[in-house]
Structure formats: structure tokens, C-alpha cells
Amino acid sequence: MQFAAGQMSNSLGIMVACHLEKCHICSSRIRVYEQLGGEILQKTTPVEMGNDVLSKLLSRLDEPAPPVQQMTKTIDPRIPRPLTRFVPSYFDQLEWKGISKSIQEYKLPISDSQFSAKLYKISAGKELPVHTHKGNEFTLVMDGSFSDKAGEYNQGDFILADTQTVHQPKAAESSDCICFAVLDAPLKMTGFFGRMLNPFLS
Amino acid sequence: MSQDQPDNARPFDALVIKIAHDKDRSAFIQLFEQASPRLKAYAMRCGATAADAEEVVQEALLTVWRRAHTFNPVAASATTWLYTIVRNKRIDLVRKERPDLVSSDDLWPEAYTEKEHLEKEIESDLNVNIVRTLLHGLPETQRQIVYKVYFEGKPHSEIANELDLPLGTIKSRLRLAMKKLDTLAKEQMTWLIIILLTNF
After folding, report:
1. What is the C-alpha separation between A119 and A102, in angstroms, rounded?
2. Cβ contacts of residue B90 below 8 Å, gap of 6+?
3. Are A107 and A120 contacting, i.e. CB atoms less than 8 angstroms apart?
4. Is the pLDDT score of A200 beyond 50?
5. Residue A43: in which H helix or E strand, if any?
6. Contacts with A34 from chain B: Cβ below 8 Å
7. What is the pLDDT of residues A150-176, one digit of tens each?
8. Most A CBs within 10 Å: which of B55, B80, B157, B192, as the mutation test of the A interface?
């Protein structure tokens, strides 16, 4: 609902947009929420427009339209369109920074006061140490798959981990697993996002 | 405007279609008169100043003029279409001078919305009225919170403070409201599946 309202924080917004590209259930929900937006629009109490706005507007109608932004082609088919501005080429060409042998990260240049956005790459077959999270961590699987004791996650899956989650993700043997993760600062989150986005919950 | 009283459920469809087909300026003026005060009100309730709100409305209506041919009445009502445009313009105005911030193109890529007509078809016909009924059917307490999400984008804790209610109450009211809407989305999925099955 917050996404459809255009009120979601930048990083999460991008993540939701990426997920929507893959998930039909969620995109049909978003459309219902957009309709709701339309309804709410009709219900607002109108505010009088300034006198000159219409004439200004009419005089601009003949201006040439700015070129419609060419859709950036995704070079790497694994990169969802909403991310292409931030990851312009291939995953492999990013400057991955190693945290350890089994996991590397790349910080995405999305400015956001509340969340930080990263890509993680877990090497094929590698297992991370058991860990929990200081806050909430939203993860979207981009490529490959990983599993923890709660189950297996594949491309397009959306996972919410919080302070209660203690897990030990392990990438599938067959390929590296790349995840898009959005972590919040000490700010407290409600868990409501997860509910809305996780198609498995309902 | 009495001679063609707009269809109540979809008041702007006919005007947008006229604009699309004939570049009809009088239709555009009518649309301006009927829609812009509400668009402005929406932008202002989202926190824009009156001047910024008028800027947003201008940009939104220019987009309507230029992109009216992409409006697909089968896909969604013009009201919904207008809503998505004004929502995006509002985001882009805030983010105009900050290229590092996310723009509406990032969040709602055009191509993506256009290729999905199949599913959208189901939405509009079945749902315009249902969504309306639902919104009206929500108890005032739930509706109030839905409005706050759309206009103010406030964290739930802040809404709780404002309404002087426990956070749990806010969350459960919103959850109830969303549940009703989600049921609707699910029904839509069912229809999609049925249509897909009958098409093949």
C-alpha cells in the first residue's frame, strides 16, 4: 500500500519494484491499491487553482514533448529493470568487496536516509556463519538460490529477516547466489512491509 | 458540462479519450476544471506548498495531454491513471534536484505497465465499483488510517501519536483494511487464471 501511495523509502521502493517485475500476485495487489488511490483522489476536498494556471498550461501544450526516456535495456537479464540505473552492466563487473571468502558485497548508490542497500554474493555451495540481525533485513534473491533452516529461496523470492531470525544461509552448490538486501538503520520497523510483500503469508 | 454528464464511476474517461483521439482542447479544459482542484488538493495533502502543488498539477496535466494515447480505458479508469501520474510527478518534483534519488521511472517503468494489459483488463471491469464500495464500506476508523498512509506517508507510530491510539490498534485497523483489499486482489488473480485457461 505504501508503494502504491508513492510513500515508500527509496531503497525499499526499488526493491519492491524489482519484486513486482517477477511476482504477479503482488503486482495485481498494487493495482488494486492504485485504484484505491484514484478513489481517494476523487474524495479529496478540491482546492481552488490559481487564476493563471490554465492559460499557462494551455500555452505549454504546443511545446515539443521531451523525448520519452528510452527504456534502458537490461544487458544482464538477471538484473531487474528498476535496478539498471544503479547496476548498469553485469553483476560480474561490479567491484565486489570481500567480507570473507564466501561472501562479497557491493554497496548500491541509492540515497536513502533510512535504509542502506547492498548486493551480496554468496559463493556457490558456501555457508555463512549463523547470524541474526540488528534490525530488519529485506532480501530479494536475484540469481541462484540459497537455503536456511526455514526453506529454500529462489530468484524473485522476497525474505524478511529481523532480530528474531537466527539463520545460516547456504548458497546452492550449482551457482553463486546474488541477493539484493536492504537493511534499516537502528530505526524500528513494523514488520508490516514484510506482510504486505511476502506472497507466502497470505 | 451538463450535456454529457460523465459516467459517475469513471468521470474522466470520456475526456481523456477525446484528448487522445482529437487533441481536443476543450476536453482538456474541462478536464482541467474538473480534475485539477482535486489533484492540487492531493499534492498539498502530501505536503506540497500551494505553488509546488500547482507545478505538480501542471506537469501531470501536460503528461495527460502528451500521453493520452497511452491511456487504456480497459486497463484502468482515468481516475486511477491520473492518480498514478500525479503521484509520480509529486515524487519527481521532490527529487528533481537530486539525481541520486530514485525517480518515478525507476519505480514504475513505463514499458512494464504497458505490457501487462492482459491482467489489467480484468481489473477495471470488475473492480472499479468494488474498490469504491470497499473504500466506502470500511469503518471510519480504518478509512482514516488508509488516508493517512496515502497522503502523509507517516510511520505508524506517528499516526498512533496523532490519533492518540495505541500502535497495535493502528496496525490492526490497517491490517483489516488491507485484508479486504487483498481479498479483492486475489479474486482478480483467480479471474486471470480462468481467463488464461480459457484462452489456451
Report:
1. 14
2. A6, B42, B43, B46, B48, B56
3. no
4. no
5. helix A24-43
6. 76, 80, 83-84
7. 888 888 888 887 777 777 788 888 888
8. B80
CA angle B162, B166, B167 (to 5 degrees): 85
Q: Do B36 and A53 touch (CB under 8 A)?
A: yes
Cell of A75: 544487458
What ipTM score was computed for the predicted complex, to two decimals? 0.71
Q: Which of A92, A152, A101 is nearest to A119 (CA)?
A: A92
Q: What are the structural domains, with CATH classification, of chain B?
A: 1-115 (1.10.1740.10), 117-200 (1.10.10.10)
User: Residue A175 is placed in which grid cell?
Assistant: 551457482
Q: What 3-state DSSP class applies to A199?
A: coil
Split chain B (200 residues) into runs of 10 and give each run's mean pLDDT: 51 86 88 89 83 88 86 80 86 67 63 40 50 69 76 74 83 79 67 57
Would the CB atoms of A6 and B36 count as touching at under 8 Å? no
Burial of A13 (0-12, 13-18, 19+ CB in 10 A): buried
Tell me the domains of chain A and their CATH numbers.
1-45+74-202 (2.60.120.10)
Q: Choose among B58, B83, B106: nearest Cβ to A34.
A: B83
C-alpha cell, B55: 507545478
**β-pair partners for A178:** A121, A143
Q: Looking at residue B99, what DSSP letter applies? A: T
B120: cell is 489489467
Claim: this prediction has a pTM higher than 0.80: no
Element at A100 (helix H, strand E): none
Tens of pLDDT along A70-80?
555 556 777 77
Q: Cα A127 to chain center, whole Å?
A: 24
Interchain contact B104–A (C-beta under 8 A): yes
**Kind and range of the H or E run holding B163:** helix B156-163
Note which residues in 123-152 of chain B have CB less than 8 A from chain A.
123, 127-128, 131-132, 135, 146-147, 149-152
Verify whether the Cβ–Cβ distance B182 to A202 is below 8 Å.
yes
- Which residues in B lie closer than 8 A to residue A110 (C-beta atoms)? 100, 102
